[in-house]
Automatic annotation (TrEMBL):
GO MF terms held by the record: proton transmembrane transporter activity
Chief localization: mitochondrion
Natural source organism: Hirundo rustica rustica
Protein name: ATP synthase F(0) complex subunit e, mitochondrial
Keywords from the UniProt entry: Acetylation, ATP synthesis, CF(0), Coiled coil, Hydrogen ion transport, Ion transport, Membrane, Mitochondrion, Mitochondrion inner membrane, Transport
Pfam families xref list: ATP-synt_E (PF05680)
Length: 68
């Protein structure tokens, strides 16, 4: 078996720096997108309520006209 190779400190530093920068970028991006997604979910929930109400009314009208 071949003994492990000694990794340059510069390479180690670069790898961990890139990891840290990626984590910071991800956190900032998440914090930026989270309120946008919450607003989209809120709007979608409102639209769903309206759509369900319209479907319920249409169903009542259909049932009422078929029994007349």
């Amino acid at each position: 078996m071949i003994p492990p190779v000694q990794v340059s400190p510069l390479i180690k530093f670069t790898r961990y720096s890139a990891l840290l920068v990626g984590m910071i970028y991800g956190k900032k991006r998440y914090d930026y997108l989270k309120p946008i997604a919450e607003e989209e979910r809120r709007v979608e929930a409102e639209e769903k309520k309206k759509r369900e109400e319209l479907e319920r009314i249409a169903k009542e009208i259909a049932e009422g006209s078929s029994s007349v």
